[in-house]
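User: I'm writing a tutorial on reading structure tokens. Could you give me a worked example: one chain, its sequence, then its tokens, then a sentence or two explaining what the tokens reveal?
Assistant: Sure. Here is the example chain.
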Amino acid sequence: MSEYYLVDVKSITCHVPRSQFQADELDMLAQSILTTKGLLLPLLLKQTAINSFEVLAGDRQYYAAVRAMEINPRAAEMVNAFIIPMGLENAALDQFNHLSMGDATPLQSSTSPTVSSDLEQRLIQLESLVQSAFIQLQTAQTLNTQRLERQIIQSNLPKPNPLTMFNSAPIPDLIHQLTQATRLGAKVKKVVEDLDIARQQSPFTSYSDLVNRVSGLGEKSVLKIIDAWMGTD
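And here are its predicted structure tokens:
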């Protein structure tokens, strides 16, 4: 399956010389790329190395993207492209040629109103086709960013001190943890009541102190509760 990416323009090469394209046409397309913040017709690329790509189709768009980066490096550092898997190059090129007029032919002079009008018309037609791809990419990026932020936040959260939890956790939480982690069954509420009375008299100073002062709560049960609280159960 072809994947849609934003690719660093500097990592792309093209076998078609830049000299085959009119400079003024590339300037016009470059300004359009900067205005719309991307190509309306993404490049087709094949990967040649980990961070290297070669243009399969879209030579004109590629050089326009290069020109856009020359004009505004920060705004045009990345270009949207489809990375074509090995073995699907010909099928991708066939589809590309059906959607466009091809890019291997040098552009004619921008002084021709017919060429400019034709280019504008094709860009308009392609805009609606590519719009959904942009939306999908932005949605995927947003979801990935949110997922990464949650992972970072969770990884940075301090682990609770189990002894502190025994000393301060609300009674419903203690009942829930003991029910989930132990086999005390109906005895859970009585054990929690004894625990609450003991900690009100004075906080537990150690797990041994906890076991000694709370009837019905053995060392194995305490270890299981700790594992559940620390997420290692």
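What the tokens reveal: Residues 113 and 177 are 76 Å apart (CA to CA). The chain is about 55% helix and 10% strand.
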